[in-house]
Structures are given as C-alpha cells and as structure tokens.
C-alpha cells in the first residue's frame, strides 16, 4: 500500500463550507487571520482536481504586487503535486491540464482586456480594495463553460474597511450580517423568456476559525491588539462591519452625532439656515441644509445641524442621476420651500463647489441655478483645512460635538464614517471613495468655521433652560434607541 501524504486540507467550519458550497457567488472572510487566501487556494485545488483541463481560473487584485502572498502560498501547495508555474506569464498549469492565472484589475479598462476570455473560477482577493464593483462586474461576463455539469463560480474575500467598504457591505453583509443566508437574484432569459436565478452568500470567517494560525502562532491576536484602538481591534478580530478599519473620520460616533428626527421640531423658526452643494452628473451630487444653534434649544451654541439632504444617486454605488442643472435647481428650490412651509426655516444663503461657476462655452451651472432662483456663492475649497474644520466640529468641546446630523440624512451617515486616508497624503482622504456628501459637509463647515471663545476654553457651560434637553439627554435618548433596535433584531 502506497503512503499518500496530505498536501492540503481545509480547516473545519467556514473554510470547509467555502469549498463545498455550490452557490455561484461567495464573499468569504470579514476578519484578519480568518484563512481567506488559504480558502481560495484550496477551492482552486479542489476545482481543478475535479475538472482537469476544463477548469480555467483567474486570481485578481487591484494591483499585481498585492498578489505576491497568494502566489508564494500557491507555490508551496501546487509544486509538490507536479504543477508547473510560468513566471513570465504568471500562470499555473496543473497536473490535469487546468490553468490558473494571476492578474491585476486596477480600473475598468483593465477588465475590458478579458473580453472573450472564458473562466470557470474567478477569485477576487481583498474586494474592499476596489472602490467600486464595476471592474469586477465586467469580469463576471468571463464566467462560462461548455462542459456539462461544471458550475462556474465567483469567489471574493475581504475585511472591513478600504475604499470599497460601502458597496461590499451593502451587497454581501447587510442582507444578513451573521452570514450563511443565501440571497437569490432573479433575471429573465431574453431568448426563452423564462425566469433565471443566481445565488450569492456571505460566509463569515474569523481568526478563531483558523485553527492552524491559532495553534502555530498563538501570539497573533496579541500583536493585532498592539496596532490600534479597542474598536479597531474588534473590527480586525471579529469582522465587525460597522467599525471601519483605517477610517479618515475616526471621531465619528453615531450615538453622539446622529439626532432623532424629533429634534427637528425643537429648532426655532428664526434659526440661521443655509445650504451647501457639491455638483455631480455621472457621479452623485449632494445638497445639504444646515441650521446653526444659538444655544437655547439643547445643543451647544454655534453647533451645526445637517437637517436635510438630497443625494443624487441611483441604486448602483457612486452612480449619479444624470440630471441637468435646471432639474437639480428645481429640486433644490422645492426642498427650500418645503422647509419653510413645514418648519418656518427660511434658507438665507448657500455655498457650492467652485466647479459650478466655471464657464465652458456657455452659461455656468451656477448661472442656470440663478435663473431658477437658487443662489450659491463659491465655497472655500481648501481640502485639508476643511477636513480639520469638520473633525474639530465632530470632536466638539466640553458641551458636546459642534456638528450633528438628523437621522434622515441617510447617505451622509452611510458614507462619512467609511471614508479612508489617502495613501500618499494621510492628511487628505482617498477620493476613490464615495466622498460627495463629505465634500459638501466640508463646504458647510468652512462657511461657518469654529471660533473658540474664552468661556468655552475655560469649560464654562451654557445654563440649562427649563424644559431644555442637554447633550447628555441626547446621548441617553440615542443609547435607548440603539438598544431597542438591537433587541428587535435579536
């Protein structure tokens, strides 16, 4: 009897489930050290062994140099079984004739190079490094086969954070944060007019699922805990998608900064109200309406409250409504009038992206707005000082934050906490992210910069008026609301 050594075997639990799962589209991972790369290598090993020359796979990352780890690991696993690696082509030929390629996919145009290719497996490593899913979506079209019984598949891995955090969370995590639930998308066959279904699933994997790492490197978890705050470590170890790894606005706290809708009823009609605007056509535009507190209705004096927003986005991530300037102006004016009609708040001024004042062979966007009675002045577009102002307001002082958002400002609340640092300039944010609401909020902050007075510097607080809610009251209200929501989900 010949002694056959085991070259590779999956860890029990999520890794085993990944390899056995017949679902077309799988997002695997969610935490550091969960064995994501190992799972993808093992999936290809199983797939190529079963289908031989009929199997063709491709591993992609946003940049080719980021594939070095998976290439090195593949050499450790594939070489002992007789697979041959071509360094120039970055391609494996497996013993049964299957082919596996390693490629980068930095932008949409890179995906176009694969038109006409046919793959039975597509592996996308660290999907959250892709700001938007467009190049990955284009690569889906390469998944096809003529071999009866062979099921093609898309396999993605990733952690919380990164410029693509939002679209990954929305597509794979939000439908079932605990994972394992199969989501079904239905399509119509244009030729037979019959209904078709494609399935996707999120398989969560944590460090505790990686028995080899826990056994052979027991200090890995300890080293992770040296790297950052408690919240950041929790995101790394537990795969928590509401805590963002490397967030630009680490000061964000939904309990502190998000106001219940009822607070809108407390704002006096005489309050100073203005709007801010960031233009977008193919990309989303963002318009926000702000009120400044005079210190008499529960929030610190000088604090800004974003009471409403209009975010011009389709269901597809970071894709604009493609409305012309006239249609956008009409929408802004209608919302101005609604605020005054419902709450007595009259919009007194507005600041906007300086780009709308540019004339390019015709009237500027600002001029088109003006024709419809929507007036803006040029916003101060200094990026780093603007982010400093926004951060300063998020931090606030002894009385509480100086910037709040009504809970109805969904897209600002959705996008602001997920934005990442620019790799080459840590003082700026990564513009590959969905930063339109952030830019518009920055304009609003620069229009009303924080000015510290002596009383605040000495920690002197405004007196509480009878029946007035304080910042601590706000925290208590929001904590109670969060606990109730968590109880309902449980």
Structure report:
This protein has 490 residues and is α/β, with parallel strands linked by helices. The protein folds into two domains: 14-238, Rossmann fold; 254-489, Nucleotidyltransferase, domain 5 (2-Layer Sandwich). The protein has 17 helices and 16 strands. The chain has helices at 14-20, 36-51, 68-78, 108-112, 134-140, 165-173, 211-216, 220-225, 230-238, 254-257, 325-343, 365-371, 383-395, 410-415, 436-447, 454-457, 471-489; strands at 25-30, 56-61, 84-86, 91-93, 99-104, 121-124, 153-158, 183-188, 195-205, 258-259, 272-278, 286-292, 304-311, 347-352, 377-378, 403-406. It has a nine-stranded mixed β-sheet with strand order 3-4-5-2-6-7-1-9-8, sandwiched between helices. The radius of gyration is 26 Å and the shape is elongated. Mean pLDDT is 85; it is low at 454-468.
Keywords:
single chain, 490 residues, alpha/beta, Rossmann fold, Nucleotidyltransferase, domain 5, 2 domains, nine-stranded mixed sheet, seven-stranded mixed sheet, 17 helices, 16 strands
Secondary structure elements and pairings:
Elements: H1 14-20, E1 25-30, H2 36-51, E2 56-61, H3 68-78, E3 84-86, E4 91-93, E5 99-104, H4 108-112, E6 121-124, H5 134-140, E7 153-158, H6 165-173, E8 183-188, E9 195-205, H7 211-216, H8 220-225, H9 230-238, H10 254-257, E10 258-259, E11 272-278, E12 286-292, E13 304-311, H11 325-343, E14 347-352, H12 365-371, E15 377-378, H13 383-395, E16 403-406, H14 410-415, H15 436-447, H16 454-457, H17 471-489
Parallel strand pairs: 1-7, 1-9, 2-5, 2-6, 6-7, 10-16, 11-14, 13-16, 14-15
Antiparallel strand pairs: 3-4, 4-5, 8-9, 11-12, 12-13
Helix pairs in contact: 1-2, 2-3, 11-12, 13-15
């Amino acid at each position: 009897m010949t002694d056959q050594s085991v070259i590779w075997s999956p860890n029990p639990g999520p890794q085993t489930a990944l390899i056995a799962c017949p679902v077309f589209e799988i997002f695997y991972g969610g935490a550091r050290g969960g064995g994501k790369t190992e799972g993808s290598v093992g999936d290809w090993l199983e797939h190529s062994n079963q289908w031989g020359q009929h199997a063709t796979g491709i591993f992609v990352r946003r940049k080719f140099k980021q594939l070095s780890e998976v290439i090195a690991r593949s050499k450790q696993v594939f070489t002992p079984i007789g697979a041959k690696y071509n360094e120039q082509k970055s391609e494996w030929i497996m013993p049964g004739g299957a082919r596996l390629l390693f490629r980068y996919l930095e932008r949409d145009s890179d995906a176009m190079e694969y038109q006409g290719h046919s793959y039975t497996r597509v592996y996308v490593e660290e999907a959250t490094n892709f700001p938007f899913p467009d190049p990955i979506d284009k690569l889906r079209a390469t998944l096809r086969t003529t071999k009866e019984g062979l099921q093609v598949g898309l396999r993605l891995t990733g952690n919380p954070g990164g410029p693509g955090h939002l679209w990954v969370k929305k597509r794979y995590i939000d439908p079932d944060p605990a994972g394992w639930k199969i989501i079904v998308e239905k399509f119509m066959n244009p030729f037979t007019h019959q209904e078709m279904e494609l399935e996707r699933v999120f398989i969560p994997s944590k460090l505790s699922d990686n028995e080899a790492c826990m056994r052979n490197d027991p200090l890995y978890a300890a080293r992770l805990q040296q790297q950052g705050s408690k919240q950041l470590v929790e995101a790394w170890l537990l795969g928590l998608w509401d805590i963002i790894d490397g967030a630009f606005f680490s000061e964000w706290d939904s309990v502190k900064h998000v106001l219940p809708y009822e607070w809108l009823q407390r704002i006096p009609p005489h309050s100073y109200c203005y709007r801010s605007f960031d233009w977008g056509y193919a990309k989303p535009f963002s318009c926000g309406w702000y009120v400044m507190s005079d210190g008499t209705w529960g929030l610190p004096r000088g604090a800004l409250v974003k009471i409403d927003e209009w975010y011009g986005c389709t269901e597809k991530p970071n894709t604009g409504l493609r409305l012309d300037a006239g249609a956008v102006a009409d929408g802004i004016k209608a919302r101005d009038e609604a605020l005054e009609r419902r709450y007595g708040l009259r919009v007194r001024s507005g600041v906007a992206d300086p780009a709308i004042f540019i004339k390019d062979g015709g009237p500027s966007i600002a001029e088109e707005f003006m024709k419809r009675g929507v007036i803006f002045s040029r916003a101060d577009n200094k990026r780093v000082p603007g982010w400093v102002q926004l951060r300063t307001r998020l931090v606030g002082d002894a009385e509480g934050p100086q910037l709040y958002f009504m809970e109805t400002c969904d897209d600002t609340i959705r996008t602001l906490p997920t934005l990442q640092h620019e790799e080459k300039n840590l003082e700026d944010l990564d513009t590959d992210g969905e930063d339109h609401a952030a830019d518009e909020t920055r304009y609003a902050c620069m229009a009303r910069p924080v000015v510290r007075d002596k009383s605040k510097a000495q920690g002197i607080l405004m007196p509480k008026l009878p029946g007035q809610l304080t910042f601590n009251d706000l925290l208590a209200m929001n904590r109670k609301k969060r606990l109730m929501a968590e109880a309902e989900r449980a």
